[in-house]
Amino acid sequence: MKYRTLGRTGLEVSVVSLGTGGPSRIGQRTHADEEQSHRVIHRALDLGINLIDTAANYSDSEAILGRALKSVPRERYFIATKFDPDPENKDEIITPEQLVASCERSLKRLGCETIDIFQFHGLVPSNYRQAVERLYPTMERLREAGKIRFIGVTEYFFRDPEHQMLLAALEDDLWDTIMVKYGIMNLAAEWEVLPLAQEKNVGVLNMSAVRVKMTRPDVLEETIALWKEEGFIGPDALPARGPLDFLVHDGVPSVVAAGYKFGISHDAISTLVIGTGNVAHLKENIDTILGDPLPEEDEQKIRAIFGTFAASEGDTG
After folding, report:
1. How many CB atoms lie within 10 A of CB 60?
2. The domain spanning residue 134 has which CATH number?
3. Using an 8 Å Cβ cutoff, are 113 and 103 in contact?
4. Are strands 16-19 and 115-123 parallel, antiparallel or unpaired?
5. Residue 188 domain-assigned?
6. In this structure, is residue 316 part of a structural domain?
């Protein structure tokens, strides 16, 4: 495993972190055997992963982690979890008391005394300011009380593909970490967000580098066709079938592998969050990410095609 410093937190985190959300939720949606989820978690630690990302609303992920990690020395891993500041997506922010209660519930489920990174989950431009004004002072009090160590914010990419919320957050300079969606077909973060995060020494977690569009050829082809129709990319920029197959060659066995490699390629990104409920899949993805990067000419072609627009079609979050 390779490690990078997570910005101003000073934490040395694995370049691959284990995510417990997404389609699989460490196997909760693909199998009924919790022990298999435990095996994924333990294997991740054995392979050098030391950062696990979860959330209060990722089904039973926090509780599963708590049970799986009960016998694991606490110094072997960092926990990043999230609370939902706007559960109804109506720009109606929870109260400070509800935030404290959410933190306490997460601590209980996780079976730990301190959350390493406590994150606002899925803020958007319309609720960002209200959430900060109402809840950030409480986050600081939770930190002073030793309940949390660092404060982070994550975006809701489907509603904010230009990352306007994260730009506001970075300008405020309140945050130890941010979570962003950045990948082959979602390059907008490298325009301003990633350089600004580097400038301000904010740790960056990259989520969903290959989700939806990259993993399903039918969705990928439909998305490329739509983007051609909308004028985002040229009509002859990519073929209708296998539009990203130019990335598959020696050392890059699939489009998904290319997506993972690209997802950790930017110097501003400390860790790439990946999720799976399958031990073999986990090992395969880690080996891919730790292998040789994409050739420079492939990255140049990616930026030439996708580097001038921000769009979220084909994504669910």
Report:
1. 16
2. 3.20.20.100
3. no
4. unpaired
5. yes
6. no
Q: Please provide the DSSP assignment of 11-34 as one string.
A: -EEESEEEE--TTTTTTTTT-S-H
Structure tokens at 62: 């926090």
Asked whether the whole model's pTM tops 0.85, one would answer yes
Quick one: angle between helices 255-263 and 296-306, nearest 10? 90
CA distance 267 to 204: 10
C-alpha 69/C-alpha 266 separation (Å) is 31
Task: Find tokens 């669910």 and name the residue.
Answer: 316
- Distance between CA atoms of 74 and 70, rounded to whole angstroms? 9
210 touches 263 (CB < 8 A)? yes
- Domain containing residue 135: 3-306
Asked, for residue 313, whether it belongs to a domain, the answer is no
Q: Which of 175, 181, 172 is nearest to 152 (CA)?
A: 175
Q: What is the pLDDT of residues 204-237, one digit of tens each?
A: 999 989 977 889 999 999 999 999 999 999 999 9
Determine, yes or no, domain membership for 317.
no
Domain count, the chain: 1
pLDDT digits (tens, 9 = 90+) for 268-285: 999 999 999 999 999 999
CA gap 54, 58 in Å, rounded: 7
SS (H, E, C) 289-301: HHCCCCCHHHHHH
Cα separation, 78 vs 297, whole angstroms: 36
